[in-house]
Automatic annotation (TrEMBL), chain A:
UniProt xrefs under Pfam families: Mak10 (PF04112), TPR_NAA35 (PF25789)
The species this protein was found in: Aaosphaeria arxii CBS 175.79
Residue ranges of every copy of the NAA35-like N-terminal domain listed in the record: 29-187
Protein name: Mak10-domain-containing protein
Matches recorded under InterPro entries: NAA35-like_N, Naa35_N, TPR_NAA35
Subcellular location: Cytoplasm
Protein family: Belongs to the MAK10 family.
Ranges where the NAA35-like TPR repeats domain occurs: 323-614
The keyword Coiled coil is assigned to this record: no
Automatic annotation (TrEMBL), chain B:
Name by which UniProt lists this protein: N-terminal methionine N(alpha)-acetyltransferase NatC
Gene3D superfamilies reported in the protein's UniProt record: 3.40.630.30
Broad EC category: transferase
A GO term, aspect molecular function: protein N-terminal-methionine acetyltransferase activity
Principal subcellular localisation of the protein: cytoplasm
Keyword annotations: Acyltransferase, Cytoplasm, Nucleus, Transferase
Recorded catalytic activity of this chain's protein: N-terminal L-methionyl-L-isoleucyl-[protein] + acetyl-CoA = N-terminal N(alpha)-acetyl-L-methionyl-L-isoleucyl-[protein] + CoA + H(+); N-terminal L-methionyl-L-tryptophyl-[protein] + acetyl-CoA = N-terminal N(alpha)-acetyl-L-methionyl-L-tryptophyl-[protein] + CoA + H(+); N-terminal L-methionyl-L-leucyl-[protein] + acetyl-CoA = N-terminal N(alpha)-acetyl-L-methionyl-L-leucyl-[protein] + CoA + H(+); N-terminal L-methionyl-L-tyrosyl-[protein] + acetyl-CoA = N-terminal N(alpha)-acetyl-L-methionyl-L-tyrosyl-[protein] + CoA + H(+)
Localization per record: Cytoplasm; Nucleus
Originating species: Aaosphaeria arxii CBS 175.79
Membrane-spanning residues: none
Similarity-based family: Belongs to the acetyltransferase family. MAK3 subfamily.
EC number, as in UniProt: 2.3.1.256
GO cellular component terms given for this protein: NatC complex; nucleus
Length: 739, 206
């Protein structure tokens, strides 16, 4: 405990002379830097009396405070206008701008929040007592109810967003500048305010009917929205909250032109009181049209997220849903992602009979297996700890050990799937490292399981090294997505396409190999009569494995074909290749492979091997004679390999289609699954056309570097980020050359 | 000096014999106001003078300027830093680059960047990185032509809400495999400035 002592007498030292002496050692204007002065501090520094940095700086004649009087009566049309302006600011905030540049620039909002009211009754556009004739009328009271609810909405939104993983400022700004957004005040209080306002507006005599209904629609919308945002909503009822909001949206849009905005009720001057250490920043101008779109999007995305509740309790269904959700176009806003995350990580969701990672393991490598037989978990350990444990008990303990070890990497994986698209890719490059470590540990548990299984004499019933296999499969799936997201996010330059599709093909081929081991083992168990093929679990399993195999092989073949095509285009000099005086191919390869270099397996191919594969005819600028010969011969490996790979991919896509979304365990995201599938098929078809056209247009050109040319125009389409799914498959266009 | 830099030498000289010089600490009064003015033209929010000083005081020799020989006016500037990154690499960073609007498209920025890269390479940099807005075609083209690759897309990286690409150029083999050196001495050097804001190359997850 700190003793309360009298403060010591101040001692005074005169340092004037010392200081002057020390200063003599410096030139005028010479800088001195403290070791602790960081870049961060330099960025945070402000220059006083610079109007762009110093928020207290006043231009000649400018006043410190705004002079908008929030008690002045407003027109009914202005009420509608202000409500819509607030909506615009609210949506701007939802897209990532801080409150200080959006809602908190409203004088009305500011007056309600500051000075901090002790009760909701004190939260008025004024404080203390005012003469009766200044008391706000029905319209201002309605505006107050609306503002209070807007503020409470913000409170709910912040609660939900901060409850999940998000990145401050990048995803969302939760800063409230010491304003308390009625955290303690429950929902029903706001509902009462809104109800009272609706009643008053309904009975207000001097209102035209269209304006009256415009005001009521907005108040009603705010009620519904507030209810839907309430973080305490029970899971089972979530889906009922969004449809009523949707029904009010169109009327809001239709009546927006009735409103008359009051720009003077918004001012950046309030920022001076929010934070003195931040430069003044402009009010974010968000058009009503854009705001309305965002609002609609939040509602649709959240409504879509509520479907998660009804998914089968299967982690792969969850995974498919999360992947599809992250890929929605336009990308779901932070609130909607947090909303889904809250459902995913809700105890009711996670409370399945078997833990989700275990279900995942079982669904890939231990179907109908003695290792994951429920009864293994019913066995109790022997009373005497010196007695050996029964093999089945040992199995359950080993599996539990692994599942516990896997839970963090598993959680990280799901967390990554809930991030914004850019983060998703980057986070996944970290998550795979965790899975790589997990794989090493899985190997140790696998050895123990193998031993127990041998002891039990059921070797042929159990997939060898199953846990390693499962971990590896998931890791490879992630590596594939990292590369695909790289294409989608326009990370690669066209002259890297060959190399990146080639890498993708290698990874997918590894996954296909893992899957064929799994399915061979499964077939053996069927052949030896261990599995009853009509068992529903077996039917589901067989379909899923078939679907996975088709997908992995389709990816492998399609990307292999793409890699081959882009290689040809590189030889034909039809891909723009920058000069790059400071770089070498080997250094660029190292940079590209950086996220994967630590993985073992899959080990990244050494550069020499990679180069040999991608430059089968020697350097791109000077191909050997075999290139022209192969190009001119329609039966050469150059063409037939490409065509065969494409043909194979198409066949596999048909196989995927046969198993459908259910086989892929994406039944809860069927629309998205179908769309992604369609994108794949379309790319494959387009790609076939490109090969045919190119092949038909090759002509011998004596004396040219490559010895051949094509009589068509080849263009590599630019990626427009965030448009469609198939943008991961960049198929060049081939058209007639203009003569 | 590189092939490109020599190329642009010619371009530059035909457009009026610009003078390319290295910044020096005792010339702050002469150059800093002009540098600030040139850089801040393209910023939504100005940097304080300490940001400029932070770079120029420590890495003035990695700042290069293009001057009009007659008027001494500043036509272009590049500002960099070079230090051990928390990933373990000796990382160069291009913090600022700008060319007067009237002088753009003549290879001036290219030349300045080449000088900076050469200087950092001479000081044994492993890699050079920077960020640029995804819509800044001129800047992307310039860097990609020199050998930079896009390594990451950074959502809402800038204050104005715009998204950026991180561009990276490896100068040495083995850079991807470097790990933080936990041996003595390294700690103070490669200290991660956890509080760095999004600008200037620090992120929560690299
Ligand atoms: C980026 C900037 C420094 C380039 O300066 P510069 O001296 O014009 O650059 P260079 O002439 O060396 O090269 C620029 C390249 O981009 C091209 N380019 C210029 N403007 C372009 C545009 N609007 N669209 C496409 N390409 C463009 C040029 O043609 C040139 O490429 P090329 O030689 O292949 O034709 C200059 O535009 C600038 O100051 N911009 C504002 C500040 C800025 O964006 N800084 C970079 C932040 S990281």
């Amino acid at each position: 405990m700190q003793q309360s002592t009298r403060p010591p007498e101040p001692k005074v030292h005169d340092i004037t002379e010392k200081f002057t002496r020390a200063c003599n050692a410096l030139e005028v204007g010479q800088l001195v830097k403290d070791d602790l002065f960081t870049l961060f501090e330099s960025i945070g520094a402000l220059e006083i009396m610079d109007s762009k940095m110093d928020s207290g700086f006043l231009k000649p004649g400018e006043t410190l405070e705004h002079d908008y009087d929030a008690l002045n009566s407003i027109l009914p049309e202005e009420l509608v206008g202000i409500m819509d302006q607030l909506l615009c600011h609210e949506m701007a905030w939802h897209t990532g701008y801080p409150l200080s540049q959006t809602l908190f620039t409203s004088v009305y909002i500011d007056n309600l929040l500051w000075p901090e009211p002790k009760t909701l009754a004190q939260a008025q556009f004024y404080r203390g007592s005012i003469p009766d004739e200044r008391r706000p009328g029905v319209l201002l009271e309605a505006l107050r109810a609306y503002c209070l609810a807007v503020i409470k909405c913000c409170d709910y939104v912040i609660a939900k967003v901060t409850g999940r993983d998000y990145f401050e400022e990048e995803d969302f700004c939760t800063h409230t500048y010491n304003r308390v957004l009625f955290v303690q005040i429950p929902l029903d209080v706001f509902m009462r305010e809104l109800d009272a306002a609706i009643e008053n507006i309904e009975s207000e005599p001097d209102l035209s009917e269209d304006v009256r209904s415009a005001i009521i629609t907005r108040l009603q919308f705010r009620k519904d929205f507030l209810i839907a945002l309430d973080p305490d909503c029970p899971l089972s009822q979530l889906e009922s909250y969004w449809p009523p909001i949707r029904s009010n949206l169109q009327p809001i849009k239709d009546t927006q032109p009735l409103g008359k905005p009051v720009p003077s009720s918004f001012t950046t001057k309030i920022q001076r009181r929010l934070a003195s250490t931040v430069p003044p920043r402009p009010i974010v101008e968000f058009e009503f049209k854009d705001a309305f779109e965002k609002l609609q999007q939040i509602c649709t995305d959240c409504e879509q997220a509520t479907n998660f509740v009804d998914l089968p309790s299967d982690p792969i269904e969850f995974q498919s849903f999360l992947w599809a959700y992250a890929g929605r176009k336009p990308a779901p806003l932070t609130y909607a992602r947090s909303y889904l995350g809250t459902i995913l990580f809700h105890p009711e969701t996670l409370n399945t009979g078997m833990s989700l990672p275990l279900l995942d393991v079982k669904g890939l490598v231990y179907p109908l297996s003695p290792v994951t037989d429920q009864s293994n978990w019913a066995l109790s350990p022997p009373r005497n700890p010196l007695m050996p444990k029964s093999p089945r008990l040992q199995l359950s303990l080993l599996v539990d050990e692994f599942i516990e070890r896997a839970s963090q990497p598993y959680l990280d994986f799901w967390t990554a799937l809930g991030q914004n698209r850019c983060r998703l890719r980057r986070m996944m490059t970290h998550v795979i490292i965790g899975w790589d470590n997990l794989q090493a540990d899985a190997g140790i548990v696998d050895e123990d399981i193998n031993r127990v299984v041998d002891e039990m004499g059921i070797r042929e019933q159990v997939l060898h090294d199953a846990l390693t296999t499962w971990t590896y499969h998931k890791k490879l799936w992630m590596v594939e997505r990292i590369v695909l997201l790289g294409f989608e996010q326009d990370i690669y330059l066209p002259d890297e396409y060959a190399s990146m599709y080639n890498f993708l093909s290698i990874i997918a081929s590894r996954r296909a190999l893992v899957l064929s081991r799994i399915s061979e083992h499964h077939a053996q168990r069927i052949a030896s009569g261990i599995i009853d093929t009509s068992d529903p679990e077996n039917v589901e399993y067989a379909s899923h494995i078939e679907s996975l195999q088709c997908e992995a092989t389709a990816l492998q073949d399609l990307s292999a074909a793409m890699a081959k095509l882009y290689t040809v285009l590189l030889y034909l000099r039809l891909v723009p290749v920058p000069k790059r005086p400071f770089s070498t191919e080997e250094l660029r390869y190292e940079l590209r492979m950086k996220p994967f270099l630590a993985l073992q397996p899959p080990e990244v191919e050494p550069f020499a091997q990679h180069q040999a594969l991608l430059q089968p005819f020697g350097p791109y600028e000077r191909p050997n004679a075999a290139f022209a010969a192969s190009m001119l011969d329609p039966k050469s490996g150059l063409w037939t390999d490409m065509e065969a790979a494409l043909q194979n991919a198409k066949g596999r896509l048909q196989g995927m289609k046969k198993q459908g979304a259910a086989g892929a365990k994406a039944s809860g995201a069927e629309t998205a699954w179908k769309e992604e599938f369609k994108g794949l098929v379309e790319s494959a078809v387009l790609f076939g056309v490109v090969i045919a056209r190119l092949k038909g247009a090759v002509r011998k050109v004596e004396g040219s570097e490559s010895g051949v040319a094509v009589d068509v125009k080849v263009e590599i389409p630019a990626i427009v980020v965030g448009t469609k799914c198939s943008d991961r498959w960049i198929v060049p266009t081939v058209s007639q050359k203009l003569k | 000096m590189s092939a490109i830099a020599n190329d642009s030498d010619k371009q530059a000289s035909s457009s009026g014999e610009l003078q390319y010089i290295q910044y020096e600490g005792d010339k702050e009064e002469t150059y800093l106001p002009a540098i600030r003015q040139l850089i801040s033209k393209d910023l939504s929010e100005p940097y304080s003078i300490y940001v400029y000083r932070y770079f120029l005081y420590q890495w003035g020799d990695l700042c290069f300027m293009a001057l009009d020989p007659l008027t001494n006016a500043l036509i272009g500037v590049v500002v960099c830093k070079l230090e051990t990154h928390r990933s373990g690499t000796f990382r160069g960073y291009i913090a600022m680059l700008a060319v007067q609007e009237s002088h753009r498209g003549k290879g001036i920025a290219t030349k300045l960047v080449c000088m900076a890269i050469d200087a950092m390479a001479a000081r044994q940099a492993d890699e050079i990185v920077l960020e640029t807005e995804v819509t800044n075609t001129a800047s992307m083209k310039l860097y990609e032509r020199l050998g930079f690759l896009r390594s990451k897309r950074l959502h809402r990286y800038y204050l104005n809400g715009n998204t950026a690409f991180r561009l990276v150029l490896y100068l040495k083999a083995g850079t991807a495999l470097k790990r933080p050196d936990m041996g003595d001495g390294a700690m103070g050097y490669g200290r991660y400035e956890g509080g760095d804001n999004a600008m200037f190359g620090a992120e929560a997850i690299a």
